[in-house]
Amino acid sequence: MSVIKNILDYEPVVDNFILNFKMRKRAQGWKEDQCNAAARTEAVRYQADLEKLQEILQNNLGGDKVSLYDVYHYLQLQIATNRSESEPDVEIKDDYRTILCMTVHKSKGLEFDTVIIPYTHRKFPDRYNTELLIDPHTRQVGWNFLTDKKNPDMRNDLYAALKEEEIEKTKEEETRILYVAMTRAINNLICIVHPPKDPERWSYLIEEVGVDEK
Q1: Mean pLDDT of all residues in the chain?
Q2: What pLDDT does residue 181 have?
Q3: What gap in Å lies between CA 12 and CA 17, rounded to an integer?
Q4: 143 with 159: CB under 8 angstroms?
Q5: Would you say residue 178 has pLDDT above 80?
Q6: Strands 131-135 vs 112-117: parallel, antiparallel or unpaired
Q7: How many angstroms separate the CA atoms of 21 and 107, rounded?
Q8: Whole-angstrom distance, CA of residue 146 vs CA of residue 153
Q9: DSSP 8-state secondary structure symbol assigned to residue 188
Q10: Which of 11, 19, 137, 170 sits between 20 and 30 A of 50, alpha carbons compared?
Q11: Contact of 131 with 153, CB cutoff 8 Å
């Protein structure tokens, strides 16, 4: 852990991040002032993420002699299973002239004067795919094999019930993600809502809470 800390303390990690970020944006055709504005925002968030990551590693692995593989294995497990960890709160100075496009996950911990949420008509992940569902509590396993359109799907008897539970969890997760996106706005929130009404779309969730349409 001390080796990792020394690397982060003495190497220009954030500066390297800024250089690489601006290089990618320039390659995409961004203007220099746009690159600088976006880089400042991303760098602040990147620094906060690094500091929180160090804190998490220290709290969970700092008391033992660990190898880099142990750190890698711990992070790999957390990425795969931990859905409750939130982004650190950071303060971003808004110049009211810059438009930043980002995913909801990247916006965690940030606040903006105005937030625009497009694509609310997109459906949640498909109901049925080729997949294996495992309930660790009951130790039940359901599987489904998606064949071509001329043939029915092949699945075991446990799949339907486990899939319905998975769909409900997906709705709960999508509701939480939408809440994160909406609460990033300080003064103005604009949601582009499309018909038709469908319970498995953000537009339906927005209409359910009674947001006025304009």
Answers
A1: 80
A2: 87
A3: 9
A4: yes
A5: yes
A6: unpaired
A7: 16
A8: 5
A9: E
A10: 170
A11: no
